[in-house]
Specification:
It is a single chain. Helix 4 runs antiparallel to helix 5, helix 5 packs antiparallel against helix 6 and helix 15 runs parallel beside helix 17. The chain folds into two domains: about 140 residues, Aspartate Aminotransferase, domain 1, CATH 3.90.1150.10; about 270 residues, Type I PLP-dependent aspartate aminotransferase-like (Major domain) (Aspartate Aminotransferase, domain 2, 3-Layer(aba) Sandwich). By secondary structure, it is an alpha/beta fold. The chain is built from 17 helices and 17 strands. The strands form four sheets. It has a seven-stranded mixed β-sheet, with helices on both faces. The mean pLDDT is about 95. The chain binds pyridoxal-5'-phosphate (PLP).
């Protein structure tokens, strides 16, 4: 159906929760999207950081197609093919065990059950991470927050307050907007769930003061290693370290919301590994299944084990289809060394962006890149529209901030094409 017809129908029948660009994509391959008129665009947004292997990746398409033909869904009352392997692979990746993860991904790829069993068995003393499968980033965070509260109640300090950072973003459910310390997102929905308190990012003194005041009432600090929706603002290593240390001193946990930063985008499997500060729980979504809705709450075994049947659940989470997609995506990323690639190509991208006259500051890590543009250039949303007209999909997070979350298959030639178009548009 054409864009014009789709616009008429959507304006009549689809809730107007997003301002949409005047384009309808109907196909895609690799870094390229194709609209209803057959025009091609280079995609530097990847469905908001989701399509990490680009569009129509053969391994992911095959896995989803074959699984859909065989069995799409059965519910969590049953065991599900490949789910244990995917969770074991996440555990290896969370430990930064590249060799172990590759051995497991190889075995999964080959469908060699004996090799999977051998590669997934934890070594003596190895930290095991367990996964709860959800459907989205907000749901992954709901799982992480419920787990932190339950751990405090059954094992820990009995606290229930979660410290979150101003400017953060954790989702659109009531609980996750309560955790999202941005007034414009909260104000229409009050009263919000209680049990949250705000701290300024990278302000270690304020964080310490909050713990001095509330102490054991706090069950967790939840943070994004790099705040994405607020314009790609990284936390300092010092702040992450203090957050972990002060939380642990009070019997509280550190939750990393890696919904946007995770799954190889940062130059490591997870951004906490770039900053060198390990959380107790992390939330994943976006890239985890390459476009099939999926999320995950991942926790160290000793914390995860407080969840018992009935404490948490989901009809769809960890469905056959999502697991098949996640297995294909995570194996491909692990075996293809996409972490190194994101680091290298991301560094090139940041350097090229920084060389533009109209660019004031470049921030980010790996292939999660943001930049502020000079105020006299105009509104960043107009830049996004002008870039779309040039055949490039990018995103603005504020009036002067552009954000780029390309597929991790992005190469330096793609970046060169983007930079020459951006140079024209910014001029
Ligand atoms: C850091 C972070 N957490 C949570 C979410 C919410 O994810 P979802 O839209 O899948 O619920 C997002 C979405 O952009 C995000 O960037």
């Amino acid at each position: 159906m054409s864009l014009a017809a789709q616009q008429t129908l959507e304006s009549s029948y689809v809730m107007h929760t997003f301002g949409r660009s005047e384009v309808e994509f109907v196909g895609g391959h690799g870094m390229t999207l194709v609209d209803d008129a057959g025009r091609e665009y280079l995609d530097f947004l990847a469905g908001i950081g989701v399509c990490c292997l680009g569009h129509g990746h053969p391994a992911v398409s095959r896995a989803v197609r074959e699984q859909a033909d065989r069995l799409a869904h059965v519910s969590n009352y049953f065991y599900i093919e490949h789910r244990g392997e995917v969770a074991a692979l996440i555990s290896k990746l969370a430990n930064g065990d590249v060799e172990g993860a590759r051995a497991l991904a190889h075995a999964m790829d080959a469908g060699d059950e004996e090799a999977v069993r051998a590669a997934s068995a934890p070594a003596e003393g190895e930290q095991v991470w367990k996964t709860f499968f959800a459907n989205s980033g907000a749901e992954a965070n709901e799982g992480s927050m419920k787990l932190a509260r339950l751990y405090a109640k059954r094992v820990g300090n009995g606290g229930n307050t979660i410290v979150c950072l101003r400017g953060g973003f954790h989702g659109r459910t009531l609980e996750t907007i309560a955790a999202t310390m941005q007034d414009w997102l909260q104000e229409s929905f009050r009263p919000l769930p209680v049990g949250f308190t705000a701290c300024t990012p990278n302000d270690v003194d304020e964080l310490r003061a909050i713990f001095d005041a509330l102490g054991d009432e706090i069950c967790a600090v939840m943070l994004e290693p790099i705040q994405g929706e607020s314009g790609v603002h990284p936390l300092t290593r010092e702040f992450m370290e203090v957050a972990r240390d002060v939380a642990h001193e009070h019997g509280a946990l550190l939750i990393a919301d890696e919904v946007q930063t995770g799954i190889f985008r940062s130059g490591k499997p997870f951004a906490f590994q770039v900053l060198g500060v390990e959380p107790d729980i992390m939330s994943l979504a976006k890239g985890i299944a390459g476009g099939v809705p999926a999320g995950a709450c991942v926790a160290k075994k000793e914390i995860a084990d407080v969840f018992r049947p009935g404490d948490h659940g989901s009809t769809f989470g960890g469905s056959c289809l999502a697991v098949a997609a996640a297995a294909a995506v995570l194996c491909e990323l692990t075996l293809g060394a996409y972490d190194d690639r994101a680091a290298e190509v991301g560094a090139y991208f940041a350097e090229r962006l920084g060389s533009l006259d109209a660019v004031r500051e470049v921030r980010g890590i790996g292939l999660m890149v943001g930049c502020d543009i000079a105020e006299d250039v105009g509104d960043a949303h107009d830049v996004v529209a002008a870039m779309l007209a040039e055949g490039f999909v990018i995103n603005a997070t504020g009036p002067h901030t552009l954000r780029f979350l390309p597929p991790l298959i992005c190469g330096t030639a793609d970046i060169d094409r983007l930079i020459s178009a951006l140079t024209r548009v910014l001029a």
